[in-house]
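Q: Please design a sequence for this.
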C-alpha cells in the first residue's frame, strides 16, 4: 500500500508556473482524497526557466526521491524534451546506481528516457500517466479508466492486467481556470487491433514515446543528444531487446506520416525488429493519422512480428499504466494483456 507520493520534475518545470497552480491544487487535493501524502521534491516547483538551466537539480531530486524512505512512489510531474541532460549527473560516477532501490516510478512522454535510465540499473518502472496530465485532469474527477489503473497501482504496488477503454476523448485545448469542471467529448473506442502476426505472444515490455526514442539517434531538438545518449549507452543493446515487447506511442505533436515513417525506419536500423516478440502501439492523440500510421507500421515492420494497435497508453486519453520489467502475456482475441510478477 502506497502512502506517500514524491513528485519530481525531471523534464519541464511547468508545475512551478503561476498559470497552472489551479491544476496543481486540484491534483494535490485528489491525491489526498485517495489517502496519499504528497511530497514535492526540493526543485520540482522551481519553474520552467530554473529547471531548464539546472539539469543537475532535477537529477538531485530523482536521487533524493529514491533515497527518501518516506516516499513510497515517485510520480513525474509532466514530460518535456530534455531529460537526457540528466545523464552525466546520474551516471558519470554511478550516482544513480548508488541511490536507487525498487519502488514504483510512474511517468510518460519524455520520461521515456528516465525509464531507460532506470532499466539500465534493473529497476522495474511504470509507463503511462503523470501528475499534471492525469491527476490534475480538469474534469470534475479523474477520467474513470485512468483512475482505475492509478488506484490499483497505489493500492497494490502493481498492475495485474490491461483491457481496452470503452471510450476515448478529444484532447483539451483550454487548460485555464475557466476550464475547471468542464467535461471532455468522448467517442466509442474499438479495442485492441491486431495488424498482423500471432494474436497471442509474451515478453517484458519496454519502450515509450516514439519521438523520445528517435531523439536518441537523431539530433532533432538539441545538438548533443546523440553524443550524450551514446556515451552513457542509454539505448539497450540488441541482446537486451531479445524476446521483449516494444511499446511505442506518439506525442501531442502528432507527427506527420512522413516523420512517423522516418522514426520507425531509424528504429529499424538498430535491428530491434528482428529480435522482439511483438510490438504494442498506442492510440494516436485525437486519432490523427490513425489509418496512415497503421499502413506505415505494416510497411516498415516486415515479417510476421505481431503488431497490436490502438492501445490506451501514452498521449491519447484515457491512459492505462503499463509495467516495464515484468512478463506480459498479450491475447488480442480475449482483448487483454496480463502481467505476471512471479514468472
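A: Design:
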Amino acid at each position: 500500500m502506497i502512502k506517500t507520493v514524491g513528485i519530481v520534475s525531471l523534464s519541464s518545470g511547468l508545475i512551478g508556473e503561476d498559470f497552472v497552480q489551479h491544476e496543481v491544487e486540484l491534483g494535490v487535493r485528489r491525491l489526498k482524497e485517495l489517502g496519499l501524502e504528497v511530497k514535492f521534491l526540493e526543485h520540482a516547483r522551481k519553474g520552467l526557466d530554473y529547471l531548464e538551466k539546472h539539469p543537475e537539480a532535477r537529477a538531485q531530486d530523482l536521487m533524493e526521491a529514491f533515497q527518501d524512505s518516506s516516499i513510497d512512489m515517485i510520480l513525474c510531474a509532466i514530460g518535456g524534451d530534455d531529460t537526457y541532460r540528466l545523464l552525466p549527473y546520474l551516471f558519470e560516477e554511478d550516482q544513480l546506481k548508488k541511490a536507487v532501490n525498487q519502488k514504483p516510478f510512474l511517468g510518460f512522454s519524455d520520461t521515456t528516457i528516465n525509464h531507460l535510465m532506470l532499466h539500465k540499473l534493473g529497476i522495474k518502472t511504470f509507463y503511462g500517466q503523470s501528475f499534471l496530465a492525469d491527476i490534475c485532469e480538469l474534469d470534475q474527477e479523474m477520467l474513470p479508466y485512468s483512475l482505475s489503473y492509478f488506484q490499483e497501482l497505489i493500492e497494490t504496488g502493481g498492475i495485474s492486467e490491461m483491457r481496452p477503454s470503452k471510450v476515448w476523448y478529444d484532447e483539451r485545448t483550454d487548460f485555464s481556470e475557466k476550464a475547471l469542471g468542464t467535461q471532455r467529448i468522448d467517442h466509442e473506442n474499438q479495442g485492441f487491433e491486431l495488424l498482423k502476426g500471432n494474436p497471442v505472444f509474451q515478453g517484458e515490455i519496454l519502450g515509450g514515446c516514439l519521438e523520445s526514442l528517435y531523439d536518441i539517434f537523431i539530433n532533432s531538438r538539441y545538438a548533443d543528444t546523440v553524443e550524450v545518449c551514446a556515451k552513457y549507452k542509454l539505448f539497450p543493446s540488441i541482446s537486451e531487446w531479445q524476446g521483449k515487447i516494444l511499446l511505442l506511442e506518439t506525442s501531442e505533436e502528432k507527427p506527420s506520416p512522413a516523420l512517423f515513417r522516418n522514426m520507425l525506419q531509424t528504429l529499424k536500423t538498430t535491428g530491434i525488429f528482428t529480435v522482439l516478440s511483438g510490438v504494442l502501439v498506442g492510440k494516436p492523440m485525437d486519432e490523427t493519422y490513425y489509418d496512415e500510421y497503421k499502413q506505415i507500421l505494416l510497411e516498415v515492420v516486415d515479417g510476421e512480428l505481431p503488431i497490436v494497435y490502438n492501445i490506451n497508453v501514452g498521449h491519447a486519453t484515457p491512459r492505462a499504466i503499463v509495467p516495464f520489467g515484468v512478463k506480459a502475456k498479450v491475447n488480442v482475441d480475449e482483448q487483454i494483456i496480463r502481467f505476471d510478477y512471479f514468472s
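Q: Thanks. Anything notable?
A: The CA atoms of residues 9 and 60 lie 11 Å apart. The chain has a mean pLDDT of 97.
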